[in-house]
Specification:
The chain is of the alpha+beta class. The protein has one domain. The protein is about 15% helix and about 50% strand. It has 1 helix and 8 strands; from the N terminus they run αββββββββ.
Amino acid sequence: MKTIKKIVLFALVSLMLFSVVACGTSEKETVDYSGEYVETNAGRGTITVTKKDDGYDVWIRWPNSAEEVYNWNFSGTFDDNGVMQYTGCEKTIITFDENGNDTSKTEYTDGTGKLVYKDNAMTWQDDKDDSGNDYKFVKE
């Protein structure tokens, strides 16, 4: 009878230890970076991040004036540290006339840079023309 109690006790202790170890090794929580982020200095620039099957589409809009808006578009994936290194960024300049009609001009299609998500905020570094430096974007 003593042997059976020892076996049952051993089984219970083993089960409890296994449960504690299993809880401690859970999968890393995944972050959904989707949403709209607004620049915190003047509130003019926005970053819109949209989830797709194999990563994210990113659209950055920055009004230069009432007549001119800069847009950057690219796609990519975030690594485990919340960093997206991107290539193939397209920058367009949209110009509005006095009647509100717009014309779009592609400035380049070979932009590179990175987005960094940290502490619930996004920073952006565009390598082609240094846009976004020193600006912080927070999720709305």
